C-alpha cells in the first residue's frame, strides 16, 4: 500500500526533514530537480507520491509528460522538458525525463540512432549549464530484478486500480530485458558525471527504496535545522549506489580561437 509507512517513525522523521528542506528552498529561492528513472514497474511513481506526502503543494510539481505531439516531435528534443524545470523556490519531480531518449526510445525504436547519439552528447552539457546556473539536480535509477518486474506487471493486469499504468511498452519490457540493460549501462557510462552522477536505488523492496532515496536527498542538500529529528541521514550503501562518474572537461572563453 502507498501509505503503509505512514505511521512509521523513520518515514515520518524523513518527511519532517523533507518539509524543512522545502521551506529552505522556498526561502532561499533555490531550485531542485529530482529525476526518477528505471525500468517499467520499478516503483518510480509510488516513491514520488511518498516524497510529496506532506509537502506544500504550492511549491512542488510532479512532471510526467505524455507522448510528444507532432509539433513537439519536430522541436529541439529538450524543449518541452526545459519549460517544466523548477522555478525559484520550487522542487520538481520528473517521473521519467529526457532520459527516455537514452533507454526507452532506442529500445522501442522511437528514435533514430543519430538522435540517440546526439542526445548523449547534449545532455551532459545541458545538465552542466543548469548546475552552473545554480540548479540542484539529483538523478535516481530504480533497479528491480526480472522476476520482480514480471510480478508487478502481472499485478497491473489484474488490479483494476493499477490497469491505467499498463502500456504497450510494459508488455514488451520482459521480452526486451537484455536490450534495456545494454542501453542502461551505456547511459550510466556516458552521462554519470562528477557533478551529476547516477544514483542506483535497489528497488525490489519498495519501502526501503523509498526511505533510502529520501534519505539521500536530505543528506545531499543543505537546509535550515538539518538533522533536527535525530534520524540517520546517511543512505544505506547496500540500497543506494553511486555510479562511477567522469569529469567533464572545462574551457575558458579566452582559450577559443
What's this, in brief?
With 257 residues, this protein is α/β, with parallel strands linked by helices.
What would you say this structure looks like, in words?
It is a single chain. Helix 1 runs parallel beside helix 10 and helix 2 packs across helix 10. A six-stranded mixed sheet has the order 2-3-1-4-5-6, sandwiched between helices. The termini are far apart. The C terminus is likely disordered. It is α/β, with parallel strands linked by helices.
Portion of residues in beta strands equals: 5-15%
Structural class: alpha/beta
Helix content: 40-55%
Biggest sheet architecture? 6 strands, mixed
What letter string, H or E per element, gives the SSE order? HEHEHHEHHEHHHEHE
Q: Compute the average pLDDT.
A: 93
The separation of the N and C termini measures 60 Å
Number of helices: 10
Which structural traits does this protein have?
single chain, 257 residues, alpha/beta, 6-stranded mixed sheet, globular
How do the helices and strands line up, and which of them pair or pack?
Blueprint: H1 9-28, E1 31-38, H2 44-51, E2 60-63, H3 70-73, H4 79-82, E3 90-95, H5 104-108, H6 113-132, E4 136-143, H7 146-158, H8 168-173, H9 177-191, E5 198-202, H10 206-220, E6 240-242
Parallel strand pairs: 1-3, 1-4, 2-3, 4-5
Antiparallel strand pairs: 5-6
Amino acid at each position: 500500500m502507498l501509505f503503509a509507512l505512514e505511521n512509521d517513525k523513520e518515514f515520518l522523521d524523513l518527511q519532517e526533514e523533507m518539509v524543512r528542506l522545502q521551506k529552505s528552498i522556498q526561502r532561499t529561492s533555490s531550485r531542485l530537480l529530482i529525476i526518477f528513472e528505471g525500468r517499467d514497474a520499478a516503483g518510480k511513481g509510488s516513491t514520488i507520491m511518498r516524497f510529496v506526502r506532506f509537502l506544500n503543494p504550492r511549491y512542488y510539481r510532479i512532471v510526467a509528460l505524455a507522448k510528444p505531439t507532432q509539433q513537439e516531435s519536430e522541436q529541439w528534443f529538450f524543449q518541452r522538458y526545459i519549460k517544466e524545470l523548477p522555478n525559484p523556490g520550487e522542487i520538481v519531480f520528473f517521473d521519467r525525463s529526457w532520459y527516455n531518449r537514452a533507454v526507452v526510445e532506442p529500445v522501442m525504436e522511437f528514435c533514430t540512432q543519430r538522435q540517440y547519439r546526439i542526445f548523449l552528447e547534449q545532455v551532459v552539457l545541458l545538465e552542466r549549464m543548469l548546475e552552473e546556473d545554480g540548479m540542484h539536480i539529483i538523478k535516481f535509477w530504480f533497479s528491480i530484478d526480472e522476476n520482480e518486474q514480471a510480478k508487478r506487471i502481472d499485478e497491473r493486469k489484474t488490479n483494476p486500480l493499477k490497469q491505467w499504468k499498463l502500456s504497450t511498452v510494459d508488455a514488451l519490457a520482459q521480452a526486451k530485458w537484455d536490450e534495456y540493460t545494454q542501453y542502461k549501462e551505456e547511459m550510466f557510462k556516458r552521462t554519470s558525471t562528477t557533478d551529476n552522477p547516477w544514483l542506483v536505488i535497489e528497488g525490489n523492496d519498495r519501502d526501503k527504496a523509498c526511505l533510502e532515496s529520501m534519505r539521500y536527498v536530505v543528506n545531499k542538500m543543505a537546509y535550515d535545522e538539518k538533522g533536527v529529528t535525530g534520524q540517520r541521514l546517511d543512505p544505506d550503501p547496500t540500497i543506494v549506489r553511486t555510479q562511477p562518474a567522469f569529469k567533464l572537461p572545462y574551457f575558458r572563453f579566452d582559450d577559443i580561437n
